[in-house]
Inverse folding.
């Protein structure tokens, strides 16, 4: 019977000590991974917003459209707050590993440095969320007034209606803004960047505050337990001293 060739052990990837390029590409991967879900939320809200424009009552269609924009921003804020909190947990783990390395203990190679909290990462994720707006905004502005440009504008309204439809309201209902360049839609990229950056930092801050409150509660419990122990010891010593005094009096 032939012996099977021994399996070669899989090479273990060291995520804790990436070189410059490895860290760069891993940051891109993590950023895109985190940007997909908020981008999908904006996409769904854009579809709802596009459908709401079929309402013939102008003020109602605008109100419904604004509600869709608010919904997209809400989901964006909620998700980035969660991401900021999760990244802060990884950051604290990284701090522990680095302290151990200073003491001569090898850190875990499975620690993903690219997932650690950094204040700029929220803004970076927000910029990735705004990539469709950036691309469609440039193409729609460059081809404005052409048949191809109209096609890009329709696709723009479908994929990122939250960015283009408000400008179509200005173009349609405000005489001074008639013929507005679609390049102005590029300013809408600021919304996911600012919302993502602010709530990413807020998520990390809330995590930090919860940890501090938990540590304070645990410290208060320990302090109360220590005070109770000291009081009990004092009571026992006092009682023992009293009994000793009574016994000495009886002997006399």
């Amino acid at each position: 019977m032939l012996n099977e060739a021994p399996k070669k052990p899989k090479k273990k990837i060291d995520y804790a000590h990436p070189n410059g390029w490895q860290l760069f590409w891993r940051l891109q991967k993590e950023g895109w991974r985190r940007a997909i879900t908020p981008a999908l939320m904006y996409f769904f809200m854009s579809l709802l917003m596009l459908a709401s424009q079929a309402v013939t009552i102008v003020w109602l269609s605008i109100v419904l459209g604004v509600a869709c924009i608010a919904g997209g921003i809400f989901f964006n804020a909620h998700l980035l707050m969660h991401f900021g909190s999760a990244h802060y947990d990884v950051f604290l783990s990284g701090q522990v590993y680095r302290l151990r390395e200073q003491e001569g203990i090898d850190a875990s190679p499975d620690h993903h440095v690219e997932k650690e909290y950094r204040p700029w990462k929220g803004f970076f994720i927000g910029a990735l969320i705004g990539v469709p707006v950036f691309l469609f905004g440039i193409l729609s502005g460059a081809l404005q007034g052409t048949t191809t440009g109209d096609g890009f504008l329709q696709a723009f309204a479908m994929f990122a209606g939250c960015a283009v439809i408000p400008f179509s309201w200005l173009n349609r209902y405000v005489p001074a803004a008639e013929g507005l360049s679609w390049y102005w839609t590029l300013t809408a990229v600021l919304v996911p960047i600012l919302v993502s950056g602010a709530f990413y930092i807020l998520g990390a801050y809330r995590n930090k505050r919860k940890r501090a409150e938990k540590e304070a509660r645990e410290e208060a419990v320990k302090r109360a337990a220590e005070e109770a122990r000291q009081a009990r010891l004092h009571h026992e010593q006092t009682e023992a001293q009293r009994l000793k005094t009574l016994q000495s009096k009886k002997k006399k």
The helical segments are 20-52, 58-102, 121-129, 131-142, 147-173, 190-251. The first helix runs from residue 20 to 52.
